[in-house]
Amino acid sequence: MKLSEIFRSVFTNILANKFRVFLTMLGIIVGAATIIMVVGIGKASEKAVEDQFAMLNVGTLYIQSGPGSQFLLTESDVDMLNEKSENILVSTILLSTRGEISSNYDSFDGTIAGVTNIFDDISNLSMYMGDFVTEDNEERRERVAVIGYTLAETLFPDDIDMAVGETITITGRRYTVIGVVDRVGDSIQGLAIDESVVLPYSTAENYVVGSSTKPKIIAVAKDINSVDAAIVEIDELFRDEYRAIGGADVVIKDAGSKLVAAQDSARTMSVLLISVATIVLIVGGIGIMNVLFVSVKERTKEIGILKALGAKKEDILLQFLLESIIISFLGGIFGIVLSFGMQPLMKYLEVSVLVSVNGYLLALAFSVVTGTFFGFYPATRAAALKPIDALRYE
User: Fold this and answer.
1) Which of 115, 181, 219, 308 is in Cβ range 3.0-4.6 Å of 61 for a Cys bridge?
2) How far apart are CA 249 and CA 67, in angstroms?
3) What φ, ψ does residue 352 adopt, rounded to 5°?
4) pTM of the predicted protein model
5) Cα distances (angstroms) measured from residue 122 to each of 22, 125, 222, 267
6) CA 166/CA 177 separation, integer angstroms
7) For residue range 191-222, what is the model confidence (pLDDT) as tens digits?
């Protein structure tokens, strides 16, 4: 048989059984759409992780007092690290607590952080307007504040551009706003900057944060290759510095490991979701196989006639296999179309989906592979029929 005749026979059979073919395709359609969605969700999760850590140097180290420890880190410890460490580029100290922040327009229960003047450089912050905390602000314990973009929108709903120079109240004391941080979108150094107010460290320490709040030190290694050496060195420096009291109980964590852990979690979730979609496709493939078995039985006489007229075993195999492949291919195409309709639904449900061409191609490839795999056995059964037996079949 000519290839054109095989194709004509395949399409004739598909068009003659449109409803059955459509029902057969449903599993493939749903499976393909599911793959596109789960790949998109996985990509969105990975991007969210990347965005969260985009403003964070992967060489950043967090130094905190150990759980249950009464030991408190101080600015002297920062000075010690900056002076003695060979693997640390710079370090700073951070205090944070929660409290009420209010203006003449509104109030907000947000994070109050005490930082030094280099915090913005370490965190790669940019200013929407005004200035960040300065060294003079800290030395003089000035009651000045830098507010996050979202907080500024809440406290000054009419126009955030009027925020600088205005007075806000933080836990009962009044502070002058000197700057507004540009929108960040994700937390940095454990702070949701957009919803936080930043004060000079000495001001926060004396007027806002209680003695029970534990500061933490943020240090930046000279480069990514120095992180491990910096962790060992910091531990030794604290042990030596506080040898007289039996050492300092500190915990050191690096941002790079947090990033890797978050990325691994996002990838694991993607794999799990794709596995679910694959199961759906397998179910769809089993449906194709069952329908082809029925089709082989219905067309047994036709197969006998074709073989009697000279059709080869390979021709019959190719005819049924092509039918399975075309059905699964069309199912993949309809699945892609369905995924377009599902995207607004995902948006309405506030599920982040980042669709890509790779997702469409993967769904289509999975669909075709599924159709080929599950269509092969019925096709071989059809090809193996003997002409005389096929012609006698009732």
Assistant:
1) 219
2) 9
3) -75, 125
4) 0.56
5) 58, 8, 12, 28
6) 6
7) 788 889 999 999 998 888 766 678 999 888 88
